[in-house]
What we know:
Blueprint lengths: L1 E7 L4 H11 L7 E10 L6 E6 L2 H4 L21 E6 L1 H14 L7 E6 L2 E2 L5 E3 L6 E5 L12 H17 L28 H7 L4 H10 L2 H21 L12 E2 L6 E3 L5 E3 L3 H12 L13 H11 L5 H12 L5 H22 L4 E2 L7 E2 L5
Parallel strand pairs: 1-2, 1-5, 4-6, 5-8
Antiparallel strand pairs: 3-4, 7-8, 9-10, 10-11, 12-13
Amino acid sequence: MTIHLIKSAELSHSLFTNVYDLLTAVDGTLKFSCDPESIIDFQKDELYQRYYAGEEAFKKMERPPVYSMDNFFPSWNFPKRVTTAAWSTLFNKCESYRKTQSIPKDDMVLLLTDIGNKFNWFATLDQNAPNNGFLHTADWEMFLPCHRQFPIAFEVIALLMHRFSFDATKPIFDQAHSRAIGCVNDLCIEKREIILKMRTADVCGDCMAKLKTKMPTTDILHALSIMDSLRVKMLYAQNFKQHVPISRVHVDGRNNRIFLPEFGNIEIKLRPLEKALYFLFMKYPEGLFLTELMDHRVELVEIYEKISHTGTREEMRIRIDDLVNVLSNSASEKISRIKRVFEEAIGPDLAKHYYIQGGNGERKRVGVVSQ
């Protein structure tokens, strides 16, 4: 089956594609489709402002009525304001996209949005059309000390598991684990409990038995592999594993992808120009002054042409000319983003061993070279 990810207008393109990259980092039978061009907009009358008394109120999910879930409207008047939509509005966006794009009925359509939802859930499926669902992509920093792309990707897989673990005709509230046990089907009424199921990335025996009756074994194994990959990446990103031996940097010679083998084979996703600059510094462990980049222009061109498939050769060389130009900020900008990518992947403590660093006017070098 294919899981189609769509986004609302306010969600950043980079976050959306990062979630897709995490989901597709593990090979298997499940397919994911990412459509950043199909922006889901909301009409003014589809949204309202919701208020929360404080942090404790905001960190609780609410139980929707069993029938006519959208007939409830909060009457509280709290300091925290969240732009919110009804569940039916979010589900209708998925169904509209499904129809306009002729999505097969057995494929899933999941809307990723920063817009809040009436009952303050992380994510859920449409009870009337369970192959449609939404994920709330904002406020994850309140629950997990890592970049939100990781828990969002995890919740995509969780919804897939829910699709085949639960009876779509019955409320999820009556089927999921009301007390967190570290299963992907934990309800997490106390939203802070989400950290437990993401650290375990597990499926309990009862839920696994249900999955096996409805979901192909190959899909189950692929989903579990993705969850475990995300679990490892979140642990490193949250600095839970900062006191571990440093990993090698491995570059796949076939496609120039960068991996950290001893850190769960986490992939470091850099853009081609950033990757070319990083590979150059890896060749010179003693470091280089930025003013020396011009002396390595030919090397950079050769590296870049091997890994980039965008633009003509002349356009590629123009980009390299800008990169080595001492009057341009291009190299400094690339170095800053390389640092950010490593920090998001494995946390700031471990990342400092890998990114390009050095003070102004000093040689800049990479902490670890490939082996």
